[in-house]
Structures are given as C-alpha cells and as structure tokens.
Amino acid sequence: MIIGIFGNIGSGKSTVAKYIANNYNFSYLNLDEVAKVVMSNNIDLQYDLFKLKQDGIDVLDNNNEIDHEKMTEVIFTSQKKNKKVSQVIWKYLKKEVNQVLKILSEANVNVVVEGACLPSIGIKSIDVQLYLANPEIDSFLYSNKWKRKIAKEKNKTLKEINKVISIQNNYNLHQRIDYVLENDPLTMNVEVLNNKVNEFMKLIIK
Q: With helix as H, strand as E and coil as C, how does 144-190 read?
C-alpha cells in the first residue's frame, strides 16, 4: 500500500507520516528530500531551469547551478513563476519517485509519501491520498498567530507564508482527496493527533 499525505506548510505532514512509518511498518519518503537530491544531481533538470531565463525566471547562480536562495524566493512569492519552476522539477521528481516506489512495491514494502503539493506531481501508484487540514486557518486572529509561528520556524516573513499558502491551495484544493484529517497544530496535542491517525489507518487497512 502507498499512502500519500499532502497539505499546507506547517500542517503536520511530517509528524503524521513519521507516526505511520514508525507504528505501522511503512517506509517513509519525503518529497522535499528527494527533490534536493534530484536537483543537485540531474543535469537535464538544471538545463531546463536554465532555459527558464528566457521567461525572466532565474534560479541559477553564476556557475549555472541551482541557487537555493533564488529558488526559495520564486517558490514563496510568485504563483506564475512557482508553476513554471515546479513543472520542471516535478517532471524529474516524478520519474525518481516512481522508480523508488516500483522497487519498494516489488519488495512488498508499504510506503507513506509526504509532500505539500503531492497530487500535482501525478504519481499514479498512490492508493490513498490524505489531506491535512487546519480548521482554523480562515480565522484572522488564529491564522496570524499560527502563521507567525510557521514564519519563525521557516525563517520567512508573514507575507511569504501567506503567499505560499495561497499558492499551495491553488494546487491542492481541486485535487483528489480520499480522506481529510483535521489538525490544529497550535492546540491539538500529540495524543489526540495520533488517535486521529489510528482511526484513519483502521479505515484503510483491511
């Protein structure tokens, strides 16, 4: 079985995915970590990013290697540029992840995969897609408090956090969602969250 977990920045994806991996004998795959490897090792990907300069999108340094500061600025500030850069990265990320999942599947290994915009990558072998939702995200006072916490953790401004949440919502909210798990990261304790995950696992494990 392959479980895919996605949701906004700071929604608890890693916490839930690691809990499933540790307590239900699943292998854990973090798309951010896989993407870092792919971006650093794939010359074709770097060339495709180089071609984006024609569109005024520059995420490379003077040696035509990925500049992570420029990349972060694009990801957190512009929906249009984010989409073009993401399409390049996701093409190669999808290929890499599919290869890993194929190997694990052939070995009868269960896998939990997490990524903020996981469905947009188009990994067809995922059996169940779980969306982590913060039920208080639209509350102005709560939202600001939560977003300030995330901004501090990620070393970003509140404006950048608001923008990336908007971008992620544009990717995620029209995608296939099999299950929704509500997680209030500021007030829900670990035991309550774990119990919700256990209930979810009861639904999908036959």
A: HHHHHHHHHHHCCCHHHHHHHHHHHHHHHCCCCCCEEEECCCCCCCH
Structure tokens at 102: 């194929």
- For helices 13-24 and 190-204, what crossing angle results, to 10°? 60
Please give the structure tokens belonging to residue 44: 């074709």
Domain ranges of the chain: 2-204
Per the rule left: phi > 0, alpha: psi between -120 and 50, beta: everything else, 116 is: alpha
Q: Could you tell me the pTM of the whole model?
A: 0.91
Average pLDDT on 7-34 reads 95
2-204: CATH homologous superfamily?
A: P-loop containing nucleotide triphosphate hydrolases (3.40.50.300)
Nearest to 126 by CA among 178, 88, 194: 178
Query: Residue 143: its pLDDT value, please?
Result: 65
